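Consider the following input, taken from an annotated entry for Protease PrsW (Aurantibacter aestuarii).
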Amino acid sequence: MTILILSALLPVLLVLLYINYSDKHEKEPKKLLIVSFVLGAVLSVVLALIMYFGFDIILPLKDDFSIQQQIIKAFLVVGFTEEFSKYIIVKYYAQPKKAFNEPFDGIVYAVMVSMGFAATENIIYVTQGGFEVAMLRAFTAIPAHATFGIIMGYYMGLAKFSSNRILYNFLGLFFAVLFHGLYDVFLFLDFIPGIAAGAFISLIVAIVLSRIAIKKHQFNSYFK
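Applying the prediction step yields:
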């Protein structure tokens, strides 16, 4: 069991090390990073479960072979629920901090929260599914959650130093939900032959955009 948990956490750790390495200008206080991660691992998961329960009551989706229902599930029930539960932690805990003093910090804190959420989720899946699930998710779900966090954090980093904070924060949430939904919808429509390949295409696009976002905020933070 210990080895399974470690296999679930290793890709999360690699993402965090990469983001920390990419933070070239001013490293964030370790306490804030740890708290952000823990809030993502605990609070965002609890909030997501509450929202899932609420959606199950007001919007029950019972037909696994309905394209319309699977689209709603991917974008609204899963994508919005999970990204919103991360977003409010970044917005109300990390963004107001004085240490959040450069655009790249939006990426750092959003990824910390996202990886906290992903760590809890990954432990659950891997302990149930074993090493094969750990290997699969190390190259799919974990990078996906990382890219959602980077995209969200890019806009929330802009928001902190903009007069249009509401707009940029909204865009952070919107695009995180959009890419999360795009990734999931191809997986949920697995009853359509070959469509699952779309999930990997959307992930590759998200990774490319994430690299661009990182480069831009490295530049923006240097001149902040």
